[in-house]
Specification:
The longest helix has 15 residues. The protein is about 35% helix and about 10% strand. With about 110 residues, the protein is of the alpha+beta class. It has a two-stranded parallel sheet with strand order 1-2. It folds into two domains: about 55 residues, no CATH class; about 45 residues, no CATH class. It is built from five helices and two strands. The chain starts with 12 loop residues before the first strand and ends with a helix. One of its GO terms (molecular function) is hydrolase activity.
Length: about 110
């Protein structure tokens, strides 16, 4: 991990955590996440989602809700060949969320 100390995450990020996650309750971490400290480490942090009543694995506790968050995040990134920020593995969405997510997983 030493080579990564101080490295800023330079890609768009949507951070999802459960409010019952033990890590969320480490001293100072909740405040770091919610009060802007996390944004300093992750400059392109787009959104923080704190899911109530969820522990360490929100994707298992509420898979459909997490899938919606992921899909909406990808939609906001506007993956298309017209987006200069997109790379060569771009895709578009046809509105069918299940098939879209399956297609993205296959990429």
């Amino acid at each position: 991990m030493a080579p990564w100390i101080g490295v800023k995450i330079q890609v768009p990020v949507k951070f999802i955590i459960g409010d019952q996650d033990i890590n969320y309750h480490l001293p100072g971490l909740k405040e770091h996440i919610l009060n802007g400290g996390f944004k300093k480490d992750v400059p392109r942090l787009e959104e923080v989602v704190v899911m109530g009543g969820v522990a360490h694995f929100p994707n298992q506790a509420r898979p459909e809700e997490v899938s919606e968050h992921i899909f909406d995040f990808f939609k906001k990134l506007q993956f298309s060949t017209n987006n200069p920020k997109a790379n060569s593995t771009t895709t578009s969405f046809d509105g069918n969320r299940v098939s879209d997510l399956a297609h993205l997983h296959a990429l």
